[in-house]
Structure formats: structure tokens, C-alpha cells
Amino acid sequence: MVKIWKANGEIHSIESNISDTRLIGCFNLIESIPFPQSTRKSDQDQYEKSLSKNKKHQTTTKEHYDQIESMTPIQKILLEQEQEQEQDQQKQIEIQSGEQTTQLSIDFQIRKIELLFKRALLDLSDYTEDFLRIYFQSIFVSTKIKTFDIEFNAYLEDLKIIDEQFETNEKKKLNILSFSNKSKLFEINCLLTSTANPLFSSSPYNSIENNIDLKLNKILLNIHLDALSSIIGFKNNIFKKLNNKSNSSQVKQTSSSSSTTKSNSSSSSFKIDFRLEGISLLIGNSSSQILYIELEDFNGYLSKTNTHILSHLVLNDLRIYDAFNKSIYPFIISKQNKSNKLLSFDLSLFNYSNNLIKSSKIKCSFLKGQLEKLNIIFLYKHLDLILSIINSFQTKQNTLKQEDVPSNESSFLPSILEKYEQHSIEFHIDFILNAPQILIPVNSYSNQAILIDLGKLLMHSESNQQYRVTYENLSINRIILNNENKSLNLLECSPFQTLINRDFNSDNKEIYIKIFWDRIEFNLSKYDYAFINKIFQENFQEKIFHKIPQIQITEQQDQDNEQYDSPSKLPMKKQSTSNEIPLNIRLDFQMKQIDLTLYLDEIDLNNSQLSRNENNKFIYLTIQLIEAQFKQSTNINYQGKIQIQHLFVDDLRQNNQNKNFARLINKGFNVDQNAPLLIATLQNKSSNRT
Asked: What DSSP element (H or E) covers 385?
């Protein structure tokens, strides 16, 4: 029988008080410890050492017998066979009963962890003050090792981060992170198994070795700007003092371990299910709140095997509110259709280089999903605030360029993209992207604005070789927000179609893109231009009236980058062979007409009859039949051509000798009217350019 081990442990409370001075001292002490370095002895030294031992030591009769037994361990072999038979019998019993023997069971719990960080009043002194307090409430871990499985379960009931430097209006310490739900804050459940499991292909494994389930309940993060500045300054102060020694130690460790590490290209299958109930971010300071950001119900899964990658993502909603109670634009970002999910996304990628894919019934890679339309109120002061918070977490450091970092490990996704280019791989797209509707007011207190509707983008695969992309409903309007919400059109365009054909089966690999666009129409006056210019002068110059604390950013040294300076350590670029078939890309673009009409009149948005006076037209410009062709192959040969068929400019003022219009720009009378007005070509063959 298999021995069963069971262990239970519990720690009631852990409390720790540590200052930045003591923390830096601990790090310096650890880094000062000389760690032993492993050295390899040569085979010749080991052989000479063994010979010297044999000369000094004379074997006895018992040792001769033990050596013979070690060469032919009959008793050991018989004992191992008996143990294997017992284990096989036990496994057969478990398979028939559907239950596995628990070989090891461990339960461990920590009821409370309290960490109090203190800050030195003077640089590296023992005079400190309470700075940050972190509570971990009830950490539980359970592990079971069975015949084929490993079960791991853990949860955290609550986590609180309290800033001891600041207080709320109720004279309470500032709670930076809180959790109000009665259930557990975070849970993780893992089921790990082996391919040797007889039930590997059935539920709950479903041919997946590592099944991981993550769940995070809704949390509230209070981003207090003054507290954020204090925390980042505390962190930067520690990093600044540890920077020199940590960089030097990293260089040594990297140089010593780089020669011994080996990349492990093999990977086991896994599936990660996750669910985030929601995150709420409250941005403000001691006097008032500024923004409230809420993300609701983000869930999905990611699965990877040797044959395919599957991904499924769903986001229910994303909302951003202006927390100022007198704001006329309280909803900065909101979903237009409340009944639908904001984002649904499904991706399937098959590894066509794996021979197992041939036996699979479903081997079609696809991308499908939908993004709902968002209503966005664009005020530059909000964007400036968010960018300032993001920049406060960044540090100035010189990082390696992407192409200078050596990497020999194979990646799954790039290999699929390479196969996609080399072979005709079946990939289907069915995605609807409802682009947002953006309202740009003159300023925070104005009800006049520019409304930009970015329309809708539809992507669909008609076959394995052809894809269709349609873009529609793009418009720009000048509006006034009142009970009637009157608007005046500035731009309107017809839908345009994009067809993508790919052909990798023939000797010449080719991607052909064709774009059709019927018409774009602009209607502008000098007052519209002045209105747009006013938006740039007021909206884009408006700043948040809450002062954001300035955070001193540390500059990290880049001594560890010296190890990559040697050319021998840089990765060699893959050289293209002469047998590779070049990929040809062809692009055809056609637009039938672009119209621009300029008006002289000033539109009163407060007037009940909101429309332009057709008698006040000034200039009419039209460009007809714009065509462009471009072709390029991977051997850097390309050629392009663009032509414009007609260009007309008319003066539409009615005081030109009783005529409806006077043509200002047109083709000459002695020129063929069917000939293109403009032709431009671009060509490159090897080193010759024209």
C-alpha cells in the first residue's frame, strides 16, 4: 500500500515593523554575503584521484561480493519487481473505482499578517515615523498529491493598505486599498495531472495537464495624489540607495549563470480560467475627488496545447465619471448600448507544423467578436491627469534595444505566423468594431462642442483566400447640447470597402489589397474654423485645478548593459536563402470624389432653424477619380503610381454677371478632357531609383 502523509499547520499572527533604514541595511547585508561558486573538475583530475585511492586501499572479500552484487543486483531487482506489481495493482484498483489515493495532504493557514513600514525623518537615521500599514487577513493553502494529480487551492480573505500620513474627512486614516465584499478577495484553484493518467482525455482534465482557476473579487483603489507622491518617493529613495550594488551583483550573477543555463523548449498544456469581478479607482486629494473609474466583470480563459491556442475574453462594462458634483459632463466614458457586453473576443490559432493537427476534426483558426460603441467626453485636463499618474510610476533608465537582446528560445505564436506565410492556412475573421463617439466641448463649462462619430468597422472572411473590411457611418458635426441637441454637419463620407486576397498556393506568393471609396464631403465656413481653433485654445489648454504633486524620478544606472556590448553576444540575424519565394504585395486604391464647400454665413446655433443658407456658398472644390497602385516584393523592389482625373474649383457667389458660378480652376481647352490631370510614379529596382 502507498503510504499516506498528512500535515496541518497554522500561524495565528505575524507582525513586522521595519523602517527604510533597516530595510536598506538588510539588503546590504544580504548582498555582502559571498556565495560559493561551483567549479567543474576535469575528467583527468577525477581519474587520477580515483587511481590514487585504489593504490592506497586494498579491497576485502566482502567488498568483492558487494561489487559483484552491484553488477548483478538480483535481490534488488526482485524487490523492485514486487513493489512495481503492488503499485500496478493499486493503480488498477484506482482506475476501476475512479478514485486516486492521496499520498500527501498539507493544510496551512496564516490568520493575520500585519506589516508596518516606517520612514526615517533624517537620511538613514533611527528617528522614524509610521508611514504605511498592510494587512493580510486569513491566508489559507491546501495541497494534495495523488497518484496522478496534484491539487492546489489557496485563498486570501482580505487585504488592506492604509497610509498613516493622511486622514479622511472623518479623521480616519486613509485606506488606499479596500475590499467590502463578504466573500474571499482572491482564490486560486489548480489541478495538475500527467498524460499517463488513464482519464486524461475525460472530464475534468479534457486533455489539459495544468488547469488553473483564478478569481478576484471587486476591490476599491483610492488613488490619493499626495499619498501616491509620498509612496513613490519612499520607493525611489530605497531604490536609489540600492541601485549601485544591485546592478553590480546582477552583472556578476548574469555572467556566471549565462554559460550554464539551457533553454527548455518543451512546454506542457495549460488552461487558465480567470474572473475579475471589478475594480473601482477613485482619484482625488485631501480636498475633493476628481475621477471615478469602474471596470465591471472581466472574465475569460486562455488555453494552450501542442496543437492550438484558444482565448476567450468578455468585458461587461467600463465607466469613467467626473467626481466634481457641478460638472455638466459627469459621464466621461460610458457604454452606449447598456444591454450588451462591452467586449467579446474569441481567438483560435492552430499549430499547423504539428502532425497531430491532421487527426483533429476542427482545425480552423478564427478570430471573432464584437466591441460596443462608447460615448467619450474628451477634456484634455482628464487626459493630462491620467498621463501624469502613469508617468509617476516610470523611472529613467537606459534599456537594451529589442534587437540587441539575445534570444534563442522558440516562440509558439511567431512560428504560426511563419507557417501562415509559407502555406495556405485557413483563417476566418468575423469581428464588429463599433468605434467610439467622441464629444469635444469648447471647455468644461460650455455646451457647444464638436461631435466625432468614428462609425463602425466590420471584418469578415468570405473564404479562406478573401477577406472583406467595411468602414461606415463616419461623420463630424458641430452641435449644441440642449433639449433639442441641434447639430450642423461638417464632414460626411460614404462607406468604403477593402478586399484582401491572399494566394500562397501558387509559385508566386501574393497578397492583393483593393480599396473602394465613393465620396467624402466637407462643409465649412470661416466661423467653423474659428470654432475649432477655439477648442484648441481652451479645451487643450485647460488644466486640472487640483495640483498634482511633483515626484522626483530616480535615474537607474545601466552597468548591466555592458555585458551585451560584445558583438559575439548579439544574436545573428536570420539570413534569407535564395530558395525562398518572395512575397508580393499589391495595392489598388480608388476614390471617386472629394467635395469641399466653403460658406460665408455665420450659423447661429441658438436659432430654431439650424441649417446653412445655400445662397451663401463661396467656394466649391471637387477632386474626382483618385486612383493609386502600388506593388512591392520582399526583395525591396517596388513600384507605385497615383493619378487624379479631374480637379475643379468654382466661385459660387451669385454676383458674377448673373451666372450661377464662375470656374476658377479647370483643365485647359486644348487638353484632352478625358486625360488624367496628374500622374505621379515611383519605382525602385535594386539600387536604381527614378
From this structure: helix 380-392
What's at 182, amino acid-wise?
Answer: K
536 grid coordinates: 484648441
Looking at residue 559, what DSSP letter applies?
G
11 phi, psi to nearest 5 deg: -120, 125
Amino acid of residue 211: N
Closest to 476 (Cα-Cα) out of 446, 445, 455, 498: 455
What helix, strand, coil percent values describe the chain, rounded to 5? Answer: 20, 45, 35
| Bridge pairing between strands 583-599 and 475-480 | unpaired
- Report yes or no: 469 and 459 within 8 Å, Cβ to Cβ: yes
How far is the C-alpha of 345 from the C-alpha of 300, rounded, in Å?
9
Residue closest to 343 by CA, chosen among 387, 312, 301? 312
509/503 Cα distance (integer angstroms): 6
Q: Which three cell numbers stand for residue 641?
A: 503610381
- Burial degree of 684 (CB within 10 A; 0-12, 13-18, 19+): middle
Is 665 part of any domain? yes
441 close to 460: Cβ distance less than 8 angstroms:
no
Inside any domain, residue 39? no
Alpha-carbon distances, residue 485 vs 61, 239, 446, 482 (angstroms)? 107, 54, 14, 5
For residue 457, the model assigns a pLDDT of 94
From start to end of 260-329, where are the E strands?
A: 270-284, 289-304, 308-322
Strand partners, 318: 295
Question: Residue 215: what residue type?
Answer: K
447 closest CA partner among 214, 605, 226: 605
pLDDT at 569: 47
Pick the closest to residue 372 from 411, 342, 412 (CA basis): 342
Number of structural domains in the chain: 2
pTM over 0.85: no
Instruction: Give me the pLDDT at residue 353, please.
Output: 60
Q: Which three cell numbers stand for residue 175?
A: 485606506
617 torsion bin: left (phi>0), alpha (psi -120 to 50), beta (else): beta
Give dist(CA 217, CA 275) in Å, integer: 8
Q: List average pLDDT for each run of 10 residues in the chain, which is 690 residues long.
A: 78 90 81 68 58 57 66 69 67 61 90 91 77 93 91 94 86 85 88 87 87 94 87 81 60 47 61 94 85 94 89 95 89 92 91 57 79 95 85 56 45 53 69 95 92 94 84 93 84 92 71 91 91 94 68 48 46 51 82 92 64 82 92 79 91 65 79 85 68
Q: What DSSP character marks residue 56?
A: H
Domain housing 502: 471-479+492-551+577-690
540 domain-assigned: yes
Residue 393 placed within a domain:
no
